[in-house]
Amino acid sequence: MSLIEKSWYKKQWYLNPLTWLLLPLSLIFCLLSNLRKVLFKLKIKKTITSHVPLIVVGNISVGGNGKTPMVIWLCEYYKNLNKNVVVISRGYGGTSESYPCEVDQHSSPYECGDEPVLIAKRTHYPVIVGPNRVENIKLAIDKHQPDVIISDDGMQHYKMGRHLELCIVDSKRQFGNGLLMPAGPLRETKSRLKSIDLVIENGGDSPLHYVLEQGGFYHVKDNKPAKFKKAQKSGIAVSAIGNPARFETSLTQANINIIEKHHFRDHHKFTIDDFTHDSNINIFMTEKDAVKCKSFAKDNWYYLKVDAKPNALTHEKLIKLLNTLT
After folding, report:
1. Which candidate, 278, 192, 202, places its Cα nearest to that of 242?
2. Angstrom distance (rounded) from CA 82 to CA 66
3. Beta-ladder partners of 72
4. Beta-carbon neighbour count of residue 257 at 10 Å?
5. DSSP 8-state assignment for residue 48
6. How does DSSP classify residue 193?
7. What is the distance between the alpha carbons of residues 147 and 161, in angstroms, rounded to a whole number?
8. Sign of torsion, CA 307 311 313 314?
9. pLDDT (tens digit, 9 = 90+) per residue, 120-148?
10. Percent of residues in the chain assigned helix, strand, coil, to nearest 5
11. Which of these, 75, 240, 304, 311, could form a disulfide with 268 (CB 3.0-4.6 Å)?
12. What SS3 state is found at 168?
């Protein structure tokens, strides 16, 4: 986490000189963002809405809020209904030579982005990535004729019409200091939450939330389930995600003794040179990071599988909203 990002979550942020230095830039960001919204409201800029129902799973803040587990939950829900789904994504961190491009479970995370490859691997649904969401949608419809399209992020892409918006909020970090970027973590002000269909917290005890249910450990090298003897349940926690503390808490809950913590920036492109530890020491990582390390992983590298599990009220409200689409 950078110095600026750390400043977002300080309790007494108003005592931080860096925050005050960045406030003028946040004001410019606010003016430009609001101008853009006005242009769409006045239809000077056009919103293009497809005939296929589109669900946006996003947030109003930057950083890891837990969107991907909810995207996977939605895919599994529709799979049980025998519905055809396509997921679209920006494919952040990918370096494909052409867009939009289609992702499957065998695609390179360095070309397509780590989260799209993870979603494709877990759901076996097609994932289409590219910076132009409207083009992604067109390819999804032309090639796959989906019943539903799910957008992983994209809440602020107002050119992309949507039929349902789900906002995921990290229960621990919430909205940080409540300021817009770069002085704070917000892409939009909290007033935006009033227009969102459902605001769901990742963790916590709010009325609408989901928890991350652990699905066991797997070998990074071959995705086979891992079994540990008690003496083996210790090692190094390695993560390149927005909120590594959440992952490390999950490891502790799984009775893993963390002897070291290695943090990298979100979407970091791992190489074998990032792992200079004793090769006999276990490595534990997230499933998102594992897709980037599979080609050079050792036998004692493991990832923890997690799934979103909505509480009863969230599940009820989700089903009601989803039933209005198809």
Report:
1. 202
2. 25
3. none
4. 11
5. B
6. G
7. 16
8. negative
9. 999 999 999 999 999 999 999 999 999 99
10. 35, 25, 40
11. 240
12. strand
Query: DSSP label at 45?
Result: S
What DSSP state is assigned to residue 65?
A: -
Q: Name, in order, each residue with C-beta under 8 angstroms of 78's C-beta and a sequence gap of 6 or more.
A: 85, 147, 148
Closest C-alpha to 139, from 98, 96, 90, 86:
86
62 neighbors 187 (Cβ within 8 angstroms): yes
Coil, strand or helix at 307: strand
Q: How would you label 309-320 residue by residue, b for 16+ Cβ within 10 Å and e otherwise?
A: ebbeebeebbee
> Does the pLDDT at position 13 exceed 80?
yes
Q: What's the CA gap between 22 and 182, in Å, rounded? A: 6
The radius of gyration of the chain's CA atoms, rounded to the nearest angstrom, is: 20
Q: Is the peptide bond before 182 cis (omega within 30 degrees of 0)?
A: yes
Task: Determine the residue type at 191.
Answer: S
| Contact (Cβ atoms closer than 8 angstroms) between residue 59 and residue 65 | yes
User: Measuring CA to CA, which residue among 213, 118, 204, 214 is closest to residue 169?
Assistant: 204
Decide if pLDDT at 1 tops 80.
no
Lowest mean pLDDT among 3-7, 236-240, 280-284, 289-293: 3-7
Q: How many CB atoms lie within 10 A of CB 209?
A: 20
Q: What is the mean pLDDT of residues 264-273?
A: 93
Backbone angles phi, psi at 42, to 5 degrees: -85, 0
Q: Quick one: DSSP state of residue 179? A: P
Reduced to 3 states (helix: H, G, I; strand: E, B; else coil), residue 213 is strand
Instruction: Say whether pTM exceeds 0.85.
Output: yes
In tens, the pLDDT along 35-48 reads 999 999 999 999 99
d(CA 139, CA 281): 45
